[in-house]
Amino acid sequence: MSHPHNNDGVGTAAQLSRIARHGIYTSPTSLDPAAAHVAEALIATLDGTAEQPVLPPDLQRLTEQVQQQAIIGFPRIAAEGGVRLSAHTIKLKTDEPRPVVIMPAGWTPLGWGLFEYTYLQLAVRGYHVLAYTPRGIGLTMAVPGKGYVDGPFTSGGTIDVAGPLDWADGLTVIDYAEKHFSPSRIAFMGESYGSGISQLVAAHDPKGRVAAVVALSTWGDLAASLYQHDTRHLAAVTALINFTGGPVERKFDAATQQILADFQAGRNLDTVVEWGKERAPSSYADKTNARGVPTFFSNTWHETLFAANQVIEHFNGLTVPKHLNLWIGDHAAPEGAGLTIPFSGPNQPVEEAFAWLDHHVRGIDNAVPTWPAVNSQIMFTYETRTDPQTGSTEIVTPAARESSPSWEDVTTSTERWYLTATASDDRDGGLATEPETGWEREFTAGQPTEAVAADAVITSGQAEWNGNPKIYVTEKFDRQNLAVWTSDPIAAGSHGGAARRIRGICELALTVRSTARSTTLVACLFDLGPDSMARIITHEPLTLTDLAPDRDHSATWKLQAAGYDLPQDHRLMLVVTSKDPLYSDASVDGSTTTISSPDSKAACLTLPLG
């Protein structure tokens, strides 16, 4: 078996440090070459194709340890329709029954190859491992005059996007594991695409063979991840399409190509939603509950692929042993590097996933039974000291984690902040604790602004995970193309100096009028510092269609969940725009959008507190 790799200097301290800081993605559609090279070098060392030692000493020792303890294999597993799935096995050399962890690969051109480091870690912990690439996923290269050739980690067939063919393939892989490992128990673990497939296979196995699931950077409702509040999540889907490793016509069958084309064009969306619901683990929560599959979830507050609310809703619908971690950052930021490379210390998101498996699959008596159902990492703490490199007197560091016995317990109270005609600076609208009606503010719709939810899918959130959230220069917010409401500076609260402990899901209610028949509202809630710089707390778009022009329409919608400590003397800033690069919009360029607070219904932001 051969692997395309260039391993000169693989796994250098500088490379590993870069991956740890910046994650495994250099863009929404590009893996860091060093992360790929580390994975390929591990595989080449395991299968004996490395011409010379190319790994740093610690990784070399790890591969040698696993080689001594296990038999390494690279089978092709025959699946439905003659499709052959690229797979990788680590079978422990023991007569004692051991559990197997099955890992469907994420949505990446490297297929199962990307997380070789994880497989080795699992083997050392006492698990057989069976990793595989879901059908159609993996690098497919065009050869002039000769069609296409697939990479070594690529599976045959076309991508079913976690559909029924992927469920059937998962059951086939379980059959293969039972035949070749005779495991004591079976677990599924996946990151991103693999996490959704893991949940769906566990729900659909008629024999109930899956003892536990670990779902990292996962989804609960694929339909809501793609299309919510009548707004399409265009940037996320575009990134996924461009990250399959090959051309659309090669990677997807005609029916799926039609679904993707309809989604991108904004047509036949009822069919698109039905397609997404079929691929939603939440649609089969009754099956998961009936089988009692212990399920571990990990997600991020600022997810740009699988936003947090739909995962939380799915989590709440499960009655099985369950745990939800919510982290700072965006998709794959917390666990991605920890699944790929060694750290100077343990990667907490991954170590907790391993602990879940150890307890529910290996039966180890560890701390898992005492874990609270929900554990949240809170954005951000602030230290007023001088940074010797930047001269800044405000250093941002990730805050401590908070636990709750349930999601419902995350929010202990709410308060209302009413949108008012003017703030203390007389330029923008205000946010106050008493209602004010009879005002309106208007802006020109259809133009991009500086008030965006994120600069880019995934990569903005990776920086945030490392304590470098996007800084917004609010003076650049063009008030002609958006509307702003700002509170006065908020005094310290009773919880360690934070002015407000935002915990849960904000809700915004206002009245909108447009000169066009449709418009999109993108609400962004910011933390505004004394220097007029801001950081985003949460956001969510809403699209309104079939409007009667120049007629008032009541609009109420939930923003994405947040865990955020607003520091004392900072202000809340609510911004409503008509356009964001993450989403589709129905705003008509040059039309006028008017936000108002009529006497019958005061415009209001409901803030969850904890």
What gap, in angstroms, lies between the N and C termini? 55 Å
What is the helix content? 25-40%
**Overall pLDDT confidence:** 93
Total number of beta strands: 33
Rg is 25 Å
Q: In percent terms, what proportion of residues is strand?
A: 25-35%
Name the shape in a single word: globular
The biggest beta sheet, please? 12 strands, mixed
Parts with pLDDT < 50 across at least 5 consecutive residues? 1-8
Look at the helices and sheets and give the structural class. Answer: alpha+beta
Discrete helix count? 15
GO molecular function, one term: hydrolase activity
Domain Xaa-Pro dipeptidyl-peptidase C-terminal: 354-605
Keywords: Hydrolase
Region (Disordered): 388-412
Q: Any chance you could write out the topology, listing elements then pairs?
A:
Layout (H helix, E strand, L loop, with lengths): L12 H10 L2 E3 L2 E2 L1 H15 L9 H13 E4 L2 E3 L5 E9 L7 E5 L11 H9 L3 E5 L7 E4 L3 E4 L13 H18 L4 E6 L1 H12 L5 E7 L5 H5 E2 L2 E2 L1 H8 L6 H4 L2 H12 L3 H10 L6 H7 L3 E6 L7 H10 L4 E6 L20 H13 L13 E4 L3 E3 L11 E3 L3 E4 L8 E8 L8 E4 L6 E6 L14 H7 L6 E2 L9 E4 L11 E7 L2 E8 L4 E10 L4 E12 L8 E6 L3 E6 L3 E7 L14 E6 L6 E6 L1
Parallel strand pairs: 6-7, 6-10, 10-11, 11-14, 14-15, 15-16, 21-24
Antiparallel strand pairs: 1-2, 3-5, 4-5, 5-7, 8-9, 12-13, 16-19, 17-18, 20-21, 20-33, 22-32, 23-28, 24-31, 25-30, 26-29, 26-32, 26-33, 27-28, 27-31
